[in-house]
């Protein structure tokens, strides 16, 4: 089958875009940003209601808005963007045409219809069941149907990606192995296929139950399989945003991976172990054996944690090596001080990396420990943790990548670069604070998904300590600051696409230009032949480790003071 | 030779690693093993482990057992709804029902004594959140979860529902006394 298409080489970046793939990337990315906008508007309602002094929305509206916020952000914004990233990592990085563009448009249409259907169901009011939709609490059939359509679309998108890899191989557009970033995208895609299958296994019977065909779905089975979907989808995000970190390190510094073996090996650990970590959502549940919990959360999860700890070192390490080669060799940290902090592509990526590791990573491992889970389960600590992973980690990385893509993919000069410079700091740092105070409130016990911490209307209201109210007030303030940061991102992105100065398309041709083979590195290296190439990064890693160890044991100390339980 | 280009060494798994990487991987691996040992070790030496003793149950079955304990050991009632306060003997089976949107009955336990606390839900998922101690357990309908508890502090505690369970979720809060 020969489709007529054209390839253009972007004059700024040297990347080659195939015209079909380019249109699909733009469509998916634009849809993503629209859902980020909706989710962000909903976040205003969520955060102003959880701020005790404001307590804005009524209970029913709050739960409705919270359901939509979770789904629009976590599922629609992120997955639309990920599909664009998958197409970028295959067609663009491998310089080949996209497999079956028509089917890719079908995937896009299904995702869009699904997302709209689900949103409409939530706004109609009888589907305020939260994104987890634990049975036997039921939503309207359209709620599940929308999610299923969306998932089918995303699954098709994954296969288009895989098909594109086949085309690149067949057309010999590159030699040897795929680039590391594409490798990471393959990992994300494989996890996505597993994830979406789990989602289908549980959402289809639930949909049938909502229309009355299936009589019952067991609540515990639902939770177990739902989390095989809900947790693994976070692994897609991790694999995707870590690939983006590597990509940005390469784009901004020309950094090459310190060791392909280590970085790819760490990605493989994700496939082998991450999806099995779903267990940590069920640590406070009845019915699951201790052995199952321990095996899944420690043996399997810790290999995945190990993988993330490796990426956390190798990415800044690669940057450090590249910077030192440019002559920034003074002391431990000159390479970091002289990094392009004014470039939002870099600053966004670095703020994301640090926040993901220190806030998201450490809190996640603490929560995922079988016994420690009892002191945070279902408290607002949990959203504190995952806003550090999906917002600081994934969302901010996607934002940083967007700043790179505006001139390259959308071919527009960025409007207001001064504001763009500021955006990652405002969004990222206020999110850091937001996550910290949520975790603080959660440590004091404050519940998540809870409309009124004053328990109005109850005869036996519990009086939260004053510190809990203070923390929730700070959640409100930090949340509004973060939303402002998010609004600036949308303003810059949409504004640039609409009004930015049009940029040159670059040379077009009817045929792809294969990637020239890379020259083998000058010296044949063996273990440690570079010496100790990234001492500054190693020092940062040790700071991380100390913070991790201290925080971990402080929580055990607190646990040991509690009621005896066995 | 960058992360967005194919690696120059065709066999990427033969690409050597730097000493920084090797050292960090070793440290991180040791730390993961320590964390693994903590979790397992706490089951042996620690005092706070969530039991996994669970039975399938039905709302009427569980309600009947809870009612029997209430009939036997109620010491007084509280609030306008006359919720019974149950003071069960040491070592006995104690039942706590979660339903839209209340906990029933109120428990009165004694410090340093051990009880078998049975939890279930009559309808949706609920969350047992004991405050201010901050002990949190998921309550799943259809499953009777038996948790052995030994309160180590006297005082008045609250049981907050911290799993979203519908419009009046925020009113689902009760007490638990330890003498
Ligand atoms: C931009 C600023 C944002 C603010 C201020 C914000 C605020 C909040 C708050 C306060 C909650 C917890 C409410 C509760 O449990 O009572 C929440 C829940 C949540 N947020 Fe955000 N959020 C923001 C952005 C995001 C983004 C970008 C994502 C995903 C990429 C996200 C995903 C979620 C999810 C999945 C939930 C859980 C919903 C549930 O419990 O079902 N949020 N958000
Ligand atoms: Cu409840
Ligand atoms: Cu509740």
Give a structural overview:
The complex is a heterodimer of chains A (566) and B (179). Chain A is mainly alpha-helical and 566 residues long. In chain A, 67% of the residues lie in helices and 2% in strands. Chain A has helices at residues 19-50, 59-92, 101-124, 141-170, 180-210, 219-253, 260-273, 290-325, 334-337, 344-367, 381-408, 417-443, 466-499, 535-560; strands at residues 7-9, 16-18, 508-509, 564-565. In chain A, a hairpin with a 6-residue loop joins strand 1 and strand 2 (16-18). In chain A, helix 2 (59-92) runs antiparallel to helix 3 and helix 8 (290-325) packs antiparallel against helix 10 (344-367). Chain A starts with 6 loop residues before the first strand and ends with a strand. The relative contact order of chain A is 0.11. The model of chain A is unreliable at 522-527 (pLDDT under 50). Chain B is 23% helix and 37% strand. In chain B, a hairpin with a 3-residue loop joins strand 8 and strand 9 (135-139). A seven-stranded mixed β-sheet of chain B has the order 2-3-6-12-11-8-9. In chain B, strands 1-10-7-4-5 form a five-stranded mixed β-sheet, covered by helices on one side. The relative contact order of chain B is 0.15. Chain B is of the alpha+beta class. Chains A and B meet through helix 2, helix 6, helix 7, helix 8 and helix 14 of A and helix 1, strand 8, strand 9, strand 10 and strand 11 of B. Strand 4 (564-565) of chain A pairs antiparallel with strand 10 (143-150) of chain B. The site of one copper (II) ion (CU) has 8 residues of chain B, from loops.
